[in-house]
Design goal:
heterodimer; A: 743 residues; mainly beta; Porin; GMP Synthetase, Chain A, domain 3; 3 domains; 13-stranded antiparallel sheet; twelve-stranded antiparallel barrel; 36 strands; 12% helix; 43% strand; globular; disordered N terminus; B: 226 residues; alpha+beta; YmcC-like fold; twelve-stranded antiparallel sheet; 19% helix; 48% strand
């Protein structure tokens, strides 16, 4: 109440509800675009009506740690669900590269790489470190109550940025200044209490003893014993956003920067107050300038993406309509089934289908057809979403199959394995294509099931096998977090070739020619374990390398079962044998897999030779789709260094192909043997290029980032692991992306 | 430094020249990105082609019906040719109008029910027509729009249709007696106004301005040939 009165005195505010609707009217700007057409009188035009628009609310701004916040202090705000942010902040010789993912509406996680100049301690001139944060929303903002959030900063190990906080933020609508018509300004008030680093200035009490920062620790383990321990101190901040572009910030920081200003001499901290001004340069980019701690200028570049909102909206060439067959009574001759006895007619049908499917980015593998049913087995080369591929295949069948063929069974294949069967009735396609709710209507009458074994009467593709493909294109191979140079990269050209002698078989290889790069200048391995992954610098000494060369066979050993056998040079560092079996019913969220490999370490020159290190490695893995795009995976087994343990990973998979995930592996290697980081962990992301290009594509790029690459808990990279091939064509994925079926 | 620049330039050139492929497989990621970059550069460098003014004399040489559609937000105009797909000859005939570059706008009795290839398309719409095909009927109308992350956004609109009386319209040298039918819809936090100019005799919608969802916005349509 006091706050309310206070605000009314100083700001003419009214309590602001959180963004109520995604849909809201825009200003008058868009209506002004309405041009007159023909000889229509001006008074016939709508003049004041604003059309419904999907304008996302501007996201909260970020602090110097890449989380929603004021300047150096956090706020309680959460980013929009799924938001993926990256950015760089710098002041007083300290630079932080931040990556934050809003994994759920109430939880976000951050990863940070930072450098501190003039450290001059522990043998470091400039100090580099990595850290993880997590934030949990405890209470959502209401009309009168603030948002409340709990955060753990640099919570793994005795990190340099370790701090915990509970913070509250309340937003208010204010009069705007220079904003779009009808848009309010926004004032955010933040107050919180911090421990650790965030309790180091102006502390008002203490809760237990906090172990001191230990620069010699291997780190890596969650530091439960220090959370919310030691002195605590209040912090506060104000942000005013008078319009959608501009932001003014003021904060009182409870971070005393003890190590940076007292133990060593990174900068001078003269005041707890920080001031800032921010500007939204583009819908995804915000830039801020600050005056910090009474002595330093700071800059913060904030980039925010949302996997759900592509920069370019997907444009897929319009399909051909589903033709309606004449009624049986009007034209009985068309419905004659005599053709079904003729093999040559069936061959003709296959030959008619083939070019039509190719035009839609699909490849016919086989056709089984009788008087009333057609089963099409095909490869999907173009669409990230199998719903889209299945829809296109069904349309092609409807244009070519004789009228009596009423049931279409669409079976996408990957590497010769039938992934699933989508069964639709042709009359449903005809009736629903222009129906009011065509998408849901078709889903209600479509069946998804395991693909049956291919019938003996199936007609294979005419001249598909042997099937050869090749490509010559550039490649980029990065390497992260060498203390001397955090980012290294090799670039060159890669020649890839594949040869498929028969369905299910593939011979594939890739040769790389490096043109430039500095990965080879990295530090040598200091690992006490067998060097199963840390010899990457040794492997980077050669310009011309055989990246991989292998033979693989994939097949379906039985109902709900998928299998793969691979032999050859599997990846840059290992060659050998690999076998995998996966159980995954089409409609089940659970999948179980077993993989066994015998591999030898390849020579550093990555030609045909091997080194004197071989190992049996393999895992039993359970995969589970929790719904809402969340997928968990637990694998137990033996890793490359001969260590035994388990890997847990959690991913959020968006329907458009974006994946953001994190993983950790703990094996029977002790933290001392493992070295820095104590155990293997990291984050990964994958971005489909269709998201950028606005064109359908199955290609995606991404990377796995480990804070540090060691030798414990490492797996061999086998090309063509089964789960990734299978899941995307199963029921959960097909239904989740069903809106694409008529596109 | 110059050696470095030389290398860099050589690299860029190589990346562009070295990108090629053959066979069944889809192009690699790098190739698709390079192709897209090439296309975008070519499109930017290409001289803007000025469409010659469309006159009635030019249109008279054309065979069959053409629909001129303008996307108001982008101020882009295209001529579309028809494929009748359902209910030929009836008042609520469904026609798919297609551009040369495979974008389509589907009309039922002249009322927009779907689009494809425009991005953020209208996947389908639930709309009632007035008996005899004189534009839409009053009542609820639901738009299903392709939206975020491969999902369908459902947008219900409450619509009122009023006949604003006779109106004579001009379509490139044609003067046509029509009825102006206006549909006003509320929903989704905004207002949508669709206008239809309907032939008084045969119920054909000669000209209209229709809203194609929040991503596409308003389209202006007029049939320029019979």
């Amino acid at each position: 109440m006091f706050l309310h009165v206070f605000l009314h005195v100083f700001f003419p505010v009214r309590i602001h509800m959180r963004p109520r609707l995604l849909l809201r009217p825009a200003g008058a700007g868009l209506v002004a675009l309405a041009l007159s057409s023909g000889a229509v009188a001006a008074e016939d035009r709508p003049v004041s009506a604003a059309e419904p628009l999907l304008v996302p609310m501007p996201p909260p701004s970020l602090n110097f740690y890449g989380s929603p916040g004021v300047i150096d202090m956090p706020s309680a705000k959460m980013l929009p669900d799924g938001q993926f942010t990256t950015g760089i902040s710098t002041f007083g010789g300290q630079t932080r590269y931040n990556l934050t993912f809003q994994a759920t509406p109430w939880m976000s996680a951050s990863f940070r790489y930072n450098s501190i100049q003039d450290w001059n301690m522990g043998g470091f001139g400039t100090y580099y470190d990595r850290s993880f944060d997590v934030r949990f929303r405890l209470m959502k903002e209401g009309q009168y109550r603030p948002e409340l959030t709990l955060g753990l900063q640099d919570f793994v190990g005795t990190g340099i940025y370790a701090g915990e906080y509970i913070v509250a933020t309340k937003t208010f609508a204010t009069p705007s200044w220079g904003a779009r018509a009808g848009q309010d300004g926004q004032l955010s008030l933040t107050a919180g209490i911090g421990w650790g680093r965030l309790g180091s200035y102006g502390s008002i009490g203490s809760s237990g003893a906090r172990p001191p920062y230990d620069p010699d620790s291997e780190g890596g383990e969650p530091a439960y014993d220090q959370w919310f321990r030691g002195p605590y101190a209040p912090f506060a901040g104000i942000e005013w956003r008078p319009n959608e572009k501009l932001g003014l910030k003021l904060e009182y920081s409870s971070d005393d920067y003890v190590t940076e200003t007292q133990t060593t001499d990174v900068f001078d901290r003269k005041s707890p107050f920080n001031f800032g001004i921010e500007y939204q340069v583009s819908p995804r980019t915000r830039l801020g300038a600050y005056y910090m701690y009474g002595s330093e200028l700071g800059v913060n570049l904030q980039v925010q993406l949302n996997p759900k909102s592509p920069p370019t909206r997907m444009h897929i060439k319009a399909p051909q309509a589903v033709p309606v067959r004449p009624s049986r009574s009007a034209n009985p001759a068309v419905w004659n089934t005599g053709w079904a006895a003729s093999e040559s007619v069936k061959l003709q049908l296959r030959d008619l289908l083939d070019p039509e499917l190719r035009a839609d980015g699909l490849v016919l593998e086989s056709l089984t057809v009788n008087a009333d049913t057609a089963e099409l087995r095909f490869r999907n080369l173009r669409y990230m979403s199998y719903a889209n591929a299945v829809g296109r295949a069904a349309r092609v069948l409807s244009r070519i199959m004789p009228a009596s063929v009423e049931t279409f069974r669409l079976v996408p294949l990957s590497g010769g394995m039938a992934l699933s069967a989508t069964t639709v009735r042709r009359s449903d396609l005809e009736a629903l294509e222009f129906d009011g709710n065509a998408t849901d209507g078709l889903l209600a009458v479509t069946a998804f099931s395991d693909a049956p074994a291919q019938a003996a009467s199936a007609i294979p593709a005419g001249d598909l096998y042997p099937d050869t493909s090749w490509s010559l294109s550039p490649y980029f191979s990065p390497s992260y977090f060498d203390p001397d140079r955090p980012f290294r990269i090799d670039v060159g050209v890669a020649l890839r070739g594949s040869y498929r002698p028969a369905p299910g078989w593939i011979v594939s290889g890739s040769i790389r020619q490096r043109i430039a790069g500095n990965v080879k200048d990295g530090p040598p391995s200091n690992s006490r374990l067998p060097h199963v992954r840390t010899d990457q610098v040794e492997y980077a000494q050669y310009d011309t390398t055989l990246n991989n060369l292998f033979v693989a066979k994939q097949w379906r050993p039985g109902r709900n079962l998928y299998a793969r056998a691979t032999v050859g040079y599997l990846e840059t560092m290992y060659g050998g044998l690999s076998g995998e079996v996966l159980w995954k019913p089409v409609s089940s969220p659970l999948a179980l897999g077993v993989e066994a490999n015998y591999v030898k370490k390849r020579d550093f020159d990555q030609l045909f030779g091997f080194q004197d290190y071989d190992v049996f490695t393999g895992h039993a893995t359970a995969y589970y789709e929790f719904g809402g795009g969340f997928m968990g995976q637990v694998g137990v087994g033996r890793y490359l260094a001969g260590d035994v343990g388990a890997t847990v990973s959690l991913e959020r998979r968006f329907d458009n192909g974006w994946v953001v995930g994190a993983f950790a592996t703990k094996t029977n290697v002790s933290a001392e043997e493992f070295g820095e980081g104590s155990f293997d962990k990291g984050i990964m992301f994958r971005i489909p290029i269709g998201w950028f290009l606005g064109k359908p594509s199955r290609q995606a790029f991404g990377t796995t980032i480990r804070p540090v690459q060691r030798d414990g808990g490492q797996m061999v990279h086998v090309p063509g692991r089964l789960y990734g091939q299978v899941r995307t064509a199963h029921r959960a994925a097909l239904q989740g992306q069903w809106a694409r079926v008529w596109e | 430094m110059s050696a470095f620049l030389f290398r860099l330039r050589g690299l860029a050139l190589l990346a562009l020249l070295a990108a090629c492929q053959g066979g069944t497989d889809a192009p690699t990621l790098q190739l698709q990105v390079i192709d897209a970059a090439r296309e975008s550069i070519t499109a930017k460098l290409a001289p803007k082609s000025e469409r010659p003014p469309v006159t009635r004399a030019v249109l008279d040489t054309l065979d069959g019906a053409f629909l001129e559609i303008t996307r108001e937000r982008e101020d882009l105009t295209a001529f579309l040719f028809p494929t009748p797909v359902r209910g030929a000859g009836t008042a609520d005939e469904i026609i798919v109008w297609r551009t040369e570059t495979d974008e389509t706008v589907t009309l039922r009795g002249g009322v927009l029910i779907a689009t494809r290839g425009l991005g953020g398309d209208v996947l389908s719409s639930e709309v009632q027509l007035r008996p005899g095909g004189l534009g839409p009927a009053s009542g609820q109308r639901v738009l299903h729009v392709a939206d975020k992350d491969n999902k369908q956004l459902t947008l219900p609109l409450a619509c009122d249709v009023v006949d604003r009386g006779p109106a004579r319209i001009e379509i490139i040298g044609w003067s046509l007696p029509t009825h102006h039918v206006q549909e006003r819809c509320e929903g989704g936090g905004g207002t949508v106004v669709n206008d239809y100019w309907v032939d008084a005799g045969n119920g054909l919608v000669w000209q209209s301005r229709q809203w194609a969802g929040p991503h596409i916005g308003y389209l202006r349509l007029r049939q320029v040939t019979r």
